């Protein structure tokens, strides 16, 4: 007789996404307040959205107060999502240029979107400890990534979270917009500034800059270039 698989909290497999997670007291308290203010919102950890076997995995920071925390889908209902989903559609990764709700007909094609922190943080700023606590979920999610998968990190915090998920040292993989890193297991880590309202309004990130990064990810996937075969992994 085989031994039963070990389970984590609430009978879930270890590392599996927990829709009722309350591991971070500050975030749990903030969501409780949001449930009082906006009972119609999702107000819970936001699950990944898209193809579980996708070759493009986009890692953002955390749900926005009136975006993903309201809708229950990453980057849905806020300014950052407008640019993200339109760009994915133009590159062939989405069936529509807009994500309106967690129940609309939008389908991601060979693409998945997730976050470094699954719960809404106060002032949209999770602490390092909270991102690290949530890393168990990202680690489990990325553990099955096949060789050739591109992990697109939106911002330095997402970049760090991906490296932590694989047990890699930050010092060996410096963040930089458009920078490409070869990871063990034949994976790519591609960096971009976050497509937030602040970054786009200050022109730190333009639409053309973001489009170029997504097209770079698309080229890597379609050309099936593996890190071991590439001559250069930098910008």
How would you describe what is shown here?
With 235 residues, this protein is of the alpha/beta class. The chain has a single domain, classed as Uracil-DNA Glycosylase, subunit E, CATH 3.40.470.10. The chain contains seven helices and six strands. It has helices at residues 25-37, 68-71, 79-90, 128-142, 156-165, 197-201, 207-223; strands spanning 49-50, 56-60, 111-115, 150-154, 180-183, 187-192. The chain has a six-stranded mixed β-sheet with strand order 1-3-2-4-6-5. β5 and β6 (187-192) form a beta hairpin. α4 (128-142) crosses α5. The model is unreliable at 1-9 and 229-235 (pLDDT under 50).
How do the helices and strands line up, and which of them pair or pack?
Blueprint: H1 25-37, E1 49-50, E2 56-60, H2 68-71, H3 79-90, E3 111-115, H4 128-142, E4 150-154, H5 156-165, E5 180-183, E6 187-192, H6 197-201, H7 207-223
Helix pairs in contact: 4-5
CATH fold description:
Uracil-DNA Glycosylase, subunit E
Helix content: 25-40%
Count of distinct strands: 6
Distance between the termini: 53 Å
Total number of helical segments? 7
Q: CATH class, please? A: Alpha Beta
In the CATH hierarchy, what is the architecture at level 2? Answer: 3-Layer(aba) Sandwich
Give the rounded overall mean pLDDT: 91
